[in-house]
Design goal:
This protein has five domains: 237 residues, MFS general substrate transporter like domains (Growth Hormone, Chain: A, Up-down Bundle); 201 residues, MFS general substrate transporter like domains (Growth Hormone, Chain: A, Up-down Bundle); 87 residues, Immunoglobulin-like, CATH 2.60.40; 93 residues, Immunoglobulin-like (Sandwich); 40 residues. It contains 20 helices and 21 strands. The strands form six sheets. Strands 13, 16, 17, 20 and 21 form a five-stranded mixed sheet that branches. It has a four-stranded mixed sheet with strand order 8-5-11-12, with no helix packed on it. The two termini are 48 Å apart. It is a multi-pass membrane protein. Belongs to the major facilitator superfamily. Proton-dependent oligopeptide transporter (POT/PTR) (TC 2.A.17) family. Keywords: Cell membrane, Glycoprotein, Membrane, Peptide transport, Protein transport, Symport, Transmembrane, Transmembrane helix, Transport.
Length: 732
């Protein structure tokens, strides 16, 4: 920090209605920054899965690694601001890093930058992964680094006699955080769902990341514009560093004197008295007492932050049609900020007063215990929803099984024996379900000779039965073996017509489908799709169909097909995979339980930490609180990688059980916790006579000199070992 800024101190800033004009720039900066962060994070796990092609577990792992880093870096930001650059410069410099990271993320999502094949699949996926990781690392450093600075910098804009205005500012500041979060989690999924690209039209992740990047640049510019109005305080030394040094000295001093005859002290932190004053030691004791209670808390965040990973992935297998609007899977995250805005006043002004009237001693720690239990119930609800989803999913073949379905393209009913299955198919019809085999099987059609059918393991197949020149034959086609991604619908056509047909849907094409052949699959989004069917002569018709989420169909164009106005009535459909039948609305109860837990746990936890922290160590406990969020995300990484449970519902139950166990441990710890008044404890030690402290320090210096002189004489007079010298020193 320069001399000019050090001399500046508090300056008289322009005010409006008694509020410094400078806070306008800080509030708008926070709104834009939170929009940038939560908007990018809302689509992040889907970007990993659908663009980078990572599986669910690895996508979840990287997502929570990123979130953990975002909550580890605030400690670094606080140290830089308080010990070196000051809050203003720290915010500016790390915001630049932040904005660069967001821009790199947007560039990494441009699939055409390495698309040599023009098929939508990047040639060099390594480049995209590398850019993504660099971008996320810079974002984590930026957003975490400025997190402990912005709110505190806003508080610095007020004078000592503006406590009421300062309190209102923090309320507005918190509102701007939630407003930015809510808007971004609505808007960026919509941007992601758009189609963009040079060679191929794909999900528009560059736009979904680009808009948050632009908002971060706007946040930086707005913050810098207000520079001339800010009160900028010089760094005065980081209290966290001082706390760490005090704790470190106490541990080292206790270890040095572990075998001495010096009387044991009441608390292990008292071993720091040789170097640090009793007031600091008493404050550190208070901080450590609260930090000890923090030990079980990460488990809550391990469940809470899975709203953006596991719960979002769960929503991709559900029906998002709400009638008047269609909800994207990543937009379900907006339920959380919406419920927060509703429930915070309800809990503060209705629930807590009612509990108080019932004369129940609902202490902060008891509230936090209830919040943890509600979060566990949220995961039980998620597990129940997952069980319903799993029951609606198709029975896909294992790695040692094969599945087959049959389509009759003969203009009469035929009898089929396929292995152990015997059935009859009407003309231009298919059997409803797939038959599962674990070895090659014999296929017999009517009275013909059996034919041995061998299918690849782990595949689904459609066998089309044709009759040509009086001879029955079959053609094999491979089917999709998983739910279509992102709620799309995998559609294909079989051309049983006597000429080549060209079929398109929107800007996507099935190509020219020759007679008695199957087209490739095309992903068709939810809603009404119009298929344009044309022949070589230019005749055409339109076939319309309404689709849900995540289905797969084979449409059969029979020999009786004609290119007329109502051509769709001739087309037969075969449902290979049913659409998602479990509605996204079933996620609302788990979001309600989780948000209820958050309101009771998080808000109360911050209030409790503030009330139990020494006056000059509020930031230390704030850093400790953020650290519990980071550790919670690390727990997700460990469980996701180590548990290897076959079913997702079982993982939800595991997390719920772990949180209930931790909840019980926390309740026991809370039972034995004694609430304190930091002001009284600080006042007790602050009244120590300075002269007495000076005498104490002089006595310690004299004692140290005497010990050194004694040891020097011992070294000159004997050749004893270093261990003996240490023993002599201790005895002395």
């Amino acid at each position: 920090m320069g001399d000019k800024e050090k001399k500046m101190g508090k300056r008289k800033s322009v005010t409006i209605f008694g509020y410094p004009l400078s806070i306008f720039f800080i509030v708008v900066n926070e709104f834009c920054e939170r929009f940038s962060y939560y908007g990018m994070r809302a689509v992040l796990v889907l970007y990993f899965k659908y663009f980078l092609k990572w599986d669910d577990d690895f996508s979840t792992t990287i997502y929570h690694t990123f979130v953990a880093l975002c909550y580890l870096t605030p400690i670094l930001g606080a140290i830089i601001a308080d010990s070196w650059l000051g809050k203003f410069k720290t915010i500016v410099y790390l915001s630049i890093v932040y904005a660069v990271g967001q821009v790199i993320m947007a560039v990494s999502a441009i699939h055409d930058i390495t698309d040599g094949n023009k098929d939508g699949t990047p040639d060099n996926m390594t480049l995209h992964v590398a850019l993504s990781m660099v971008g996320l690392l810079l974002i984590a450093l930026g957003t975490g680094g400025i997190k402990p600075c912005v709110a505190a910098f806003g508080g610095d804009q007020f004078n000592e006699d503006q406590d009421k205005q300062r309190s209102t500012f923090f309320s507005i500041f918190y509102l701007s955080i939630n407003a930015g979060s809510l808007l971004s989690t609505v808007i960026t999924p919509i941007l992601r769902a758009q189609k963009c690209g040079i060679h191929t039209q794909q999900q528009c992740y560059p736009l979904a990341f680009g808009v948050p990047a632009a908002l971060m640049v706007v946040a930086l510019v707005i913050f810098i514009v207000g520079s001339g109005m800010y009160n900028k305080t010089a760094p005065t030394g980081n209290i966290m560093v001082k706390v760490f040094k005090c704790i470190s000295f106490a541990i080292k001093n206790r270890y040095r004197n572990r075998s001495s005859k010096i009387p044991k002290r009441e608390h292990w932190m008292d071993w720091a008295e040789e170097k640090y004053d009793k007031l600091l030691i008493a404050q550190v004791k208070m901080v450590l007492k609260v930090l000890f209670l923090y030990i079980p808390l990460p488990m809550f965040w391990a469940l809470f932050d899975q709203q953006g990973s596991r719960w979002t992935l769960q929503a991709t297998t559900m029906d998002g049609n709400f009638g008047s609007m269609v909800i994207q899977p990543d937009q379900m995250q907006t339920v959380n900020p919406i419920l927060i805005l509703i429930m915070v006043p309800v809990v503060d002004f209705i629930i807590y007063p009612l509990i108080s009237k019932c004369k129940l001693n609902f202490t902060p720690l008891r509230r936090m215990t209830v919040g943890m239990f509600l979060a566990a119930l949220a995961f039980v609800a998620a597990a129940l929803v997952q069980l319903q989803i799993d029951a609606s999913l198709p029975d896909f073949p294992s790695s040692t099984e094969q599945q087959a379905k049959f389509i009759n393209m003969v203009d009469r009913p035929i009898d089929i024996t396929a292995g152990n299955y015997t059935f009859q198919l009407e003309a231009f019809q298919s059997n409803k379900d797939y038959y599962t085999y674990d070895r090659p099987f014999e296929l017999k059609i009517d009275t013909g000779s059996p034919v041995l059918i061998s299918l690849p393991d782990g595949t689904r197949n459609t066998l089309v039965i044709l009759e040509e020149a009086g001879q029955i034959r079959n053609i094999k086609f491979g089917d999709v073996v998983a739910k279509p991604e992102e709620g799309a619908n995998a559609i294909r056509f079989f051309n049983g017509f006597g000429m080549v047909l060209n079929i398109t849907v929107g800007e996507e094409g099935f190509g020219n489908i020759i007679s008695k052949n199957m087209s490739t699959y095309v992903d068709v989004p939810q809603g009404t799709a119009e298929f344009l069917i044309k022949n070589a002569a230019g005749n055409q018709c339109v076939f319309s169909r309404e689709f849900g989420f995540g289905s797969s169909y084979t449409f059969i164009i029979p020999p009786t097909f004609t290119l007329e106005e109502n051509c769709g009535q001739h087309i037969k459909e075969v449902e290979d995979i049913k659409a998602n039948s479990i509605h996204m609305a079933w996620q609302i109860p788990q979001y309600f339980l989780m948000t209820s837990g958050e309101v009771v746990f998080s808000v109360t936890g911050l209030e409790f930490s503030y009330s139990q922290a020494p006056s000059n160590m509020k930031s230390v406990l704030q850093a400790g609180w953020l650290l519990t969020v980071a550790v919670g995300n690390i727990i997700v990484l460990i469980v996701a990688e180590a548990a290897t449970l076959p079913d997702q519902w079982a993982e939800y139950v595991l997390f719920a059980a772990l949180l209930v166990l931790v909840c019980i441990i926390f309740a026991i710890m809370a039972y034995f916790y004694t609430y304190i008044d930091p002001a009284k404890i600080e006042g007790k030690f602050a009244n120590l006579e300075p002269e007495d402290e000076k005498k104490k320090k002089n006595l310690e210096v004299t004692k140290k000199d005497m010990v050194e002189n004694h040891n020097e004489k011992r070294r000159k007079s004997s050749n004893s070992s270093s261990d003996e010298e240490e023993t002599s020193q201790t005895n002395f």
